[in-house]
Design goal:
This is DUF4219 domain-containing protein. Helix content is about 60%, strand content about 0%. It is an all-alpha fold and about 130 residues long.
């Protein structure tokens, strides 16, 4: 096109005004929304949606952008993914999967708590010994 811009200029715009929140154990939903917004602003969100159909260079730009918002201990695991989409899904599974485990454990504990009741004729010492 005659605008003098390279494909790189059209794909990856300056990020000086973008903030990249760091993923924690408890902020996945807000983090994911913020990172998606950033990737959309950089014209890179389609890479996450397309997966295998994305251009390799754009895929790596999307992954590199995502790496800005994750703890450094996650970098090597995410860099081993073939596609940015796989990295995105891995992050989602790690965070939401952990939430599901917590929810199941909480339900189990609630069930145990609700099952704790004095049996007819049971003394306090007997109840405490159970």
């Amino acid at each position: 096109m005659g605008d003098g811009k390279t494909d790189m200029d059209k794909t990856f715009t300056p990020t000086a005004n973008l903030t990249w929140p760091v993923l924690t154990r408890s902020n996945y939903h807000g983090w994911a929304s913020h990172i998606q917004c950033n990737l959309e602003g950089l014209n890179l969100w389609d890479v996450i949606e397309k997966g295998e159909n994305a251009e390799r260079r754009q895929d790596r730009l999307a992954l590199g952008s995502m790496l800005r918002g994750v703890p450094t201990e996650m970098h090597s695991m995410l860099l081993n993914k073939k596609m940015a989409k796989e990295a995105w899904e891995a992050i989602k599974t790690m965070r939401l999967g952990a939430d599901r485990v917590k929810e199941v454990n909480a339900q189990k504990l609630l069930g145990e708590f609700e099952a704790m009741a004095f049996k007819p004729g049971e003394s306090i010492d007997d109840f405490k010994a159970r």
